[in-house]
């Protein structure tokens, strides 16, 4: 069974006065991983994630060591059929951004900036408020902390699991409107017309 490192997208906000605006936004791309197959252990400086997809026959495993401390009790989670999204509360209130997500400065292939959610440090006050209504708290979750972080038995539907998230089906519907096969049909019709025109010339001759 293949074990792979999932793609991780991240963005952040910072605030010295409002804890709600002082967070890391993390998206772990793990399609088709049901809640029963998820394990997440969130500590102040580390995150360990394991998820298994029966349909894709893949096991996803991820270990992160953060640049600075977060507050697991104030962090939130949303699980959808495509990914696990986390809003990690930075422990220290500070107007400055973290220079990077991870403690080590080396570049890792699976970690990318989430440009859809990223806002430059000097422009974040003008940025629209994020909607985290789909997210549920992590503090009351059984197994959070040192106990392995087992998500078994948690009803993700109460956390708005996947609520309103776009699916790949929308894109395929749009592409159906402009099917390349239609162009081929036109060419075939054009070919049928050509012999008819040739026959007319023969008749004239």
From TrEMBL:
<feature type="compositionally biased region" description="Acidic residues">
    <location>
        <begin position="170"/>
        <end position="190"/>
    </location>
</feature>
<feature type="compositionally biased region" description="Gly residues">
    <location>
        <begin position="141"/>
        <end position="152"/>
    </location>
</feature>
<feature type="region of interest" description="Disordered">
    <location>
        <begin position="141"/>
        <end position="205"/>
    </location>
</feature>
<dbReference type="InterPro" id="IPR008978">
    <property type="entry name" value="HSP20-like_chaperone"/>
</dbReference>
<dbReference type="Pfam" id="PF04969">
    <property type="entry name" value="CS"/>
</dbReference>
<protein>
    <submittedName>
        <fullName>HSP20-like chaperone</fullName>
    </submittedName>
</protein>
<dbReference type="InterPro" id="IPR045250">
    <property type="entry name" value="p23-like"/>
</dbReference>
<dbReference type="GO" id="GO:0051087">
    <property type="term" value="F:protein-folding chaperone binding"/>
</dbReference>
<dbReference type="GO" id="GO:0006457">
    <property type="term" value="P:protein folding"/>
</dbReference>
<dbReference type="GO" id="GO:0051131">
    <property type="term" value="P:chaperone-mediated protein complex assembly"/>
</dbReference>
<dbReference type="GO" id="GO:0051879">
    <property type="term" value="F:Hsp90 protein binding"/>
</dbReference>
<feature type="compositionally biased region" description="Basic and acidic residues">
    <location>
        <begin position="191"/>
        <end position="205"/>
    </location>
</feature>
<feature type="domain" description="CS">
    <location>
        <begin position="3"/>
        <end position="102"/>
    </location>
</feature>
<dbReference type="GO" id="GO:0005829">
    <property type="term" value="C:cytosol"/>
</dbReference>
<comment type="similarity">
    <text>Belongs to the p23/wos2 family.</text>
</comment>
<dbReference type="InterPro" id="IPR007052">
    <property type="entry name" value="CS_dom"/>
</dbReference>
<dbReference type="GO" id="GO:0005634">
    <property type="term" value="C:nucleus"/>
</dbReference>
């Amino acid at each position: 069974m293949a074990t792979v490192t999932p793609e991780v997208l991240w963005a952040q906000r910072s605030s010295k006065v409002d804890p709600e605006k002082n967070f890391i936004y993390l998206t772990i791309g793990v399609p088709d991983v049901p809640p029963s197959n998820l394990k997440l252990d969130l500590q102040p400086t580390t995150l360990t994630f394991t998820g298994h997809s029966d349909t894709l026959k893949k096991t996803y495993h991820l270990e992160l060591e953060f640049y600075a401390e977060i507050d697991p009790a104030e962090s939130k989670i949303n699980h959808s059929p495509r990914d696990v999204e986390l809003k990690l509360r930075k422990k220290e209130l500070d107007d400055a951004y973290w220079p990077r997500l991870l403690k080590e400065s080396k570049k890792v292939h699976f970690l990318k900036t989430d440009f859809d959610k990223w806002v430059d440090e000097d422009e974040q006050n003008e940025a629209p408020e994020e909607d985290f209504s789909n997210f549920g708290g992590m503090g009351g979750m059984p197994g959070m902390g040192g106990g392995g972080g087992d998500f078994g038995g948690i009803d993700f539907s109460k956390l708005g699991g996947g609520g309103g998230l776009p699916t790949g089906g929308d894109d395929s519907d749009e592409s159906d409107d402009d099917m390349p096969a239609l162009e081929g049909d036109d060419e075939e019709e054009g070919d049928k017309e050509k012999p008819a025109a040739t026959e007319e010339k023969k008749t004239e001759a």
